[in-house]
Design brief:
3-stranded mixed β-sheet, 7-stranded mixed β-sheet, 12 helices, single chain, Aldehyde Dehydrogenase, Chain A, domain 2, 12 strands, Aldehyde Dehydrogenase, Chain A, domain 1, globular, alpha/beta, about 35% helix
Amino acid sequence: VITPWNFPVNIPVEYLAPGMATGNTIVWVPAPSTSLVACALMEAIESADLPAGVINLVIGEGAIVGDAVVVHPDVTAIGFTGSAATGRKIAERGAGKPLLLELGGNGPVIVFEDADLDTAAAAAAGGAFFNAGQVCAATGRVLAHHSIAESLCEKLVAHAEKHVLGDPFHQGTTMGPLNNAKVAAKIKEHVDEAVSQGAKVLYGGRPRPDLGSGLFFEPTIIAGVTREMKINREETFGPVVPVLAFKDEAEALDLALDSEYGLSVGVFTADVARGISLAKAIPAGIVNVNASSTWWEIHLPFGGGNGTKSGIGRLGGVHTMEAMTELKMITVTMDRKAGAE
């Protein structure tokens, strides 16, 4: 089991608990940047008197330790949450072993002209700014009907303005720094490229090293985004809401389908039938009608749509437990003569 840095406690538990419940022994490789959190969780597990060897914590860089675990002949199955690029490498290196891969997303939040704009704006902003946008099911982009796009942007800006960027240990702070310099650089690259190609920053859009680190980035709303821009096509993984306008349902669906990802989607409309129709047409693991792309409960199936970069299999409740067991058929043929005796 290889886990990421953005949720260093609950994502490991989503694997470790079902793994133990189904009788597996587990080698756990956490993200190096949150390894102290992993050590603290491991101490809690040890204090529960779990038999030695059931969970084995191994710390180190993914390219070295993670790879060694993935290819080891005694590892019979692999669980991983993280980027699509790393997930692909793991799938290649662990070829032939069962895989449970929960990978990246760039889920659109689609807002139609008949939607409750206050609800849609709150959901889209919450999905983009929660955990500084470092969420695989985050609001990757907002697709808004052209007739309400400007009003929706105003409401999104109002949500961004309420956030207080700063030290998470300070009372009143609502958004902390990003995890690492690579993520910070990608966010700035996406924003700068969009602006250079004609998009308009309505709020934020800048790193804030004056707050004590280059990892702080302002909550950001960008309008006038087009489908060719990286901020629309790639997973930004930061506190940024790119807004694209569409003219009708057909264009909204086309924009939603024009993506390599298929993890989680939000659709806001008063027409539930239209919402369900779109949900069926979009190859994502989760489509929430009148709820954010981030809405999920731990017993529900979570994972990417087939044929996308967003993963294989489903996390959540019984689905994780099924992934961590193996179907086996055993037949017994009785000796009829011996049975008669």
